[in-house]
Batch of 2 targets.
Target 1
Amino acid sequence: MGHAEAAPGRLGLSGGADTSCRIVIVRYSIAPAIALMACGRIGFDPAPTMGDAVGDGTVPGDTLVLPGVPFPVGFSAPGMERNPSVAWDGAQFVVGWNDNHGRTADGSIAGSLVSRAAVVQPPTVWLGGGFIQAQGPAIACNVAGGCAIVTGDFTGSSALGRALVTNGVPGAAGTLVNRASNFPAVASIGTRFLVVYNDILTPSVNSVMIDAGGAIVSTPVQLVAPLGQTQAVSATANGYVAAWQRDATIEYTTLDPAGVILSAKVSVAGSDIARPAIASAPTVSLLVWNELGSHVRGLRIAADGTALDPVPLSITQATTTARPTVTWDGISFLVAFERRLDVTTASLAAVAVDPDTGMVGPETELTPAASPVTDFVPALASDRAGTSLCVFQRNGPTMASYGLLIKR
């Protein structure tokens, strides 16, 4: 389905737990696609100032343009679409979410394709039923345009599994590894994917390599023990950087393209740290997280795992920001997050972070708070050619997956 865009507007950026679940990997592919493209940047005023101050630093760049208003990326009928995620497959954005509608089996994983012009192809169910209370999927696409969608659930099963989706048509699911896991993450180099997941039975955080057909092609590598809680991973020029939340701490390590550990685990100090997310530029990655009761922080990491900031960057000042997400758009890191007004009401905002200096631009509102409608759980991806897509969960009478295009 299409979406009529509003007149362009300009936006200045100046500067007792469940113990059994399974990961299912879904592969979506299109006809052979171009390799991932270089992306544009969001804007800042020139003349940067030094330090990690929020709102008074500036980063060189262009004006950020919002070419329209938020638009639905899910089903037209009301239902419950939760925890959306997004990736760029070389030709379009691939969006997935946990779908709990009466029209589909509870806990399905559904998705849609979104063009740079906000045209949404009709959504389809990629993985049907049996994923009660599933977390939202994590998505990564390889250079051939094939995408792996990984997800966990709390149904009592304990499996790292897979299903294939080609040109929007899902294939059969299959079990790969019998492990209880949740909150997985995935990234890709070449045609293969690295999946990072927590093994509740061991307990530990592990990684495993998946080929373009969804089959495991490596033995699991233990990254840390005991158990981690929420994982993140990104592809770098040297391989991968993987991060996870363990208790109230964020830890990370680097791996080569084959998934072999390259650097010792690094712990990031903080207070009640949660929800890591990570994105990579050619020579540096940005790890972001939420400090509960505080704000969003970040750390730039070199390709060899060296922390580039002596103290974490202050991404936000407000004490009510949460659930950060990050993408690399070719020149700047774009970080989006919730701005919580109260327990049930939130809007979305974004900043950009310069990869070379760590300078943080001022916050820019992406969606306003408009009770009883509220926006949660943002996720970002970029085509690295001037267009990014922020997807999020819009709560109102129902829960729906929405998107917002961000262009230079």
Note: The longest strand covers residues 169-177.
Target 2
Amino acid sequence: CHGLPIENIVEKELGTKSKKDIEDMGVEKFNELCRSKVLGYVSEWEKTIHRLGRWVDMKHAYRTMDKEYMESVWWVFKELWDGGYIYKGYKPMHICPRCETTLSQQEVSEGYKDIKDISVTAQFRVQDTELKKRLVGDGDAYLLAWTTTPWTLPGNVLIAVGEDLEYTIVKLGDAHFIVAKDLVMTNFEGKEFEVMSQVHGKDLAGLYYEPLFPYYADSENSFRVVTADFVTTEDGTGLVHLAPAFGTDDYEVFRKEHVPFIQHVGMDGVFKKEVTDFAGLHVKPVEDHMATDIEIVKWLAHNGKLFAKKKYEHSYPHCWRCDTPLLNYATDSWFVDVTKVKKTALKLAEDINWSPAHMKEGRFGKWLEGARDWSISRQRFWASVIPVWQSEDGDQICIGSVEELETLSGQKVDDLHKHVVDKITFEKDGKTYTRVPDVLDTWFDSGSMPYAQVHYPFEQKEAFEQGFPAEFIAEGQDQTRAWFYYLHIIASAIKGKPAFKNVIVNGIVLAEDGKKMSKKLQNYPDPMDILNKYGADVLRFYLLSSPVVSAENLNFSERDLNDVSRNVFRMLWNSYSFFTTYASIDNWSPMSCHSRAGGNPGSENSLDPRVKPEDDKSKNILDRWILSELQLLIREVESSMEKYELSKATRAFMPFIDNLSNWYIRRSRKRFWKSEDDNDKENAYQTLYAVLVTLSKVMAPFTPFLSEEIYRNLFSCHSREGGNP
């Protein structure tokens, strides 16, 4: 219900281009439009779910936008707050400049794309100091620093070198250049240069250089060389340009070296007015992400500060919702202190069963081991809010319920969305408290689901306790870094136990050509057309028997779907039709309608259609064989289901149906064709009847429609035709 997906739909319809457009229109109007869009999809969702045969109580479904759900989210936040797991910090994070909001580590990981970009090696002129003269002598000398983000160069304040790395002073023409020894040929190949001397990085520390750009030239304690342990000679020049506002390493050095914090780009991704030559330009325009970097290169070249430029291909993060290139940007955010709960989370994760099993120690386990603090605040609108009210002097009160807010404010609260609660203030101890402006990451909503779906702890405490942890959950493999992860982190922190016992991890259904299904490319058939053409059971069986339920991707193929329809369903239906045809001709009724088990159909001591070979009177080897195969099928399906191995369980039906149709029935046909009613014919009917009824029961979770049709018609002693199945 909440989050950027709905916001983006509304923005597209409104034609808004920025966050400011929404604020100018009014947050209340925008949020109400978002609410209406959520409700607009309900009927289509209900129709599809019902048609697919999924058993869901849609009349009592929870919605994350409902007051009750959001109140439980507040309770979860308050539990974390009281446990010391919530803090506000300032650090570099990825932001989407279009949405003007921060993103979590997981969200960033979803949006990487391979793109062509431009890298720059800029030359920073070393100032004439005693250290410079001692190292280089007279004449111009330059530090060569390489960057893949030219737009950050106007914010440069320091250059970092590796303390123990070796650097070479190279003479090219009348100037000297400083570069890492291992990268001399990378940067000077094809040029006539002379190696003058070698120094270590620690020898360069303290060199001062002229600002590359003039905009922040008066910054104190800046434009000098420092040492840092993250500098390598894997690529570039071995000298790293540092802009504190745009990188984790840069920011840490800034804090250590006490240089001014320069942030020459706004959160909207636009150069600020003091960057006069580029003011108003977007640093990563969506329509051409290299355009501004090229302008930077032109400026450097024009001012004699460009040493080299080169196009290259690399993986770059994009907003997973609106496809805008992200920026690494220092800003404040609210965090969940994941590092504080990580030890507990890792221990509890040992008790969770995964299907497929390798996910436990692999994708999920590794992500959990490397987990960092979770940025949970967003600078958006349609979401649950951060339930913290703050006074002017910085005192904060975290509110965990509607009743608490109503008591403090003296107001009736019927909605917990931003446009409502932002208007609510209250007085306490002579101070006025207003809500902090941020909203919560939508994944905080999702991670709070076990509690919020039943409005815990405000209602249904007993129901919650009985159902927590959940027996099993299922989602795509991308959720190992999202929903599975956030469920586990929150439960570990506030409950000290896992949120779930078993997990089924799905892959992704792709188009037949292996590409992502896309409305734009029209590379997949309409789902409702597939359901109407083949039926829900065929689609369910096709997917359940495929690698997609084992965390692998599936290239959807209608040809393969047709094979399932022909080789499984048509074969089973023909077997069922064979039985009903001859049973009707002979007016045959199953023994369970009589006194074999000593009771009426449906009573506790009536015949259980799951006939075991030793209980059956038939000595016919075909009867005993197919009943034995049936028991093997039941055992394999039950064993696989207990392990949550859905594809293995589903595939077990294929050879059995083939054996039933092409071996048992084909070689037993003459027994049904007999004109006289003898024991052998009766045993054939009883065996095939027992097999079909039992098979319908075993297949019911996989193919509910066909199973119900077969079961209801066969497991009845009094059909509309007057007694026959």
Note: The longest helix spans residues 558-585.
